[in-house]
């Protein structure tokens, strides 16, 4: 239905009662209410503090990595070092590398006095419980609002090895940086798997005959091999953030 017709139907509906048996009118009212809610939420999320009290780093990674694995210990150490520098740690709140990051923050600030360990979850029937190291937990009903929350809550993003969910999070942030809906938010990719993804973007999007991405889009994320390299970059961007 064209927008003008829908607006007229909703306007008319506001001045008279609509029978639930009138399915078309009922659905249009519901659609209009949902769109109005989205617009309201969008406007409210434009209200941002001039500066957060602490630098906030989101760490995205696999839920399948176990504590005895070296990668788990690396991510825990990364979060520990960031928390020692008064940075908050944000994850998806689940097990694996999310737990490693939340655990690292807790070890650096066991009294929970200087930093925060945050988990942003999604409500799924088969999803694991929130890990024990999360201090503040938020549960969303949809992936869309959850990803939006990550964007609103974070100053920097670190992507360590992960699967489909981690890739979704990475690509969401990458696109927002590409279209300049995010500014001055480092996107740091740790590990060879992400470097190969960036190479694929360059080869099959930027340099391909169709050129479905612009030159420079492949340079938006910064690829590093180790969490120590990621930490060095984050220390630098944290200092820049403090100076602003």
TrEMBL record:
Q: Which GO terms label this protein's molecular function in UniProt?
A: AMP nucleosidase activity
State the EC number(s): 3.2.2.4
Which Pfam families does the record cross-reference, listed alphabetically? Lysine_decarbox
* EC class (word): hydrolase
Residues annotated as transmembrane: none
> Where does it sit, as one GO cellular component term?
cytosol
Q: Which reaction does it catalyse?
A: AMP + H2O = D-ribose 5-phosphate + adenine
In Swiss-Prot or TrEMBL terms, this protein is called AMP nucleosidase
């Amino acid at each position: 239905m064209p927008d003008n017709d829908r607006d007229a139907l909703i306007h008319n509906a506001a001045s008279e009662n609509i029978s639930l048996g009138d399915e078309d009118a009922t659905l249009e009212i519901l659609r209009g209410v949902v769109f109005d809610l989205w617009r309201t939420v969008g406007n409210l999320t434009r209200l941002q503090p001039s500066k957060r009290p602490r630098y906030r780093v989101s760490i995205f990674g696999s839920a399948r990595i176990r504590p005895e694995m070296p990668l788990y210990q690396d991510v825990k150490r990364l979060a520990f070092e960031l928390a020692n520098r008064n940075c908050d740690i944000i994850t998806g709140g689940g097990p694996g590398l999310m737990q490693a990051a939340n655990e690292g923050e807790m070890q650096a600030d066991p009294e929970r006095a200087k930093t925060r360990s945050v988990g942003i979850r999604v409500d799924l029937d088969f999803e694991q419980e929130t890990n024990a190291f999360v201090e503040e937990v938020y549960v969303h009903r949809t992936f869309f609002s959850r990803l939006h929350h990550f964007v609103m809550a974070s100053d920097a993003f670190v992507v360590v090895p992960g699967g489909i969910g981690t890739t979704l999070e990475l690509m969401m942030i990458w696109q927002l940086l590409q279209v300049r809906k995010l500014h001055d938010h480092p996107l740091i990719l740790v590990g060879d798997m992400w470097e190969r993804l960036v190479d694929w973007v360059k080869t099959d999007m930027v340099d391909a005959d169709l050129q479905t991405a612009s030159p420079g889009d492949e340079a938006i994320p910064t690829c590093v091999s180790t969490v120590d390299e990621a930490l060095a970059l984050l220390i630098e961007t944290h200092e820049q953030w403090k100076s602003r």
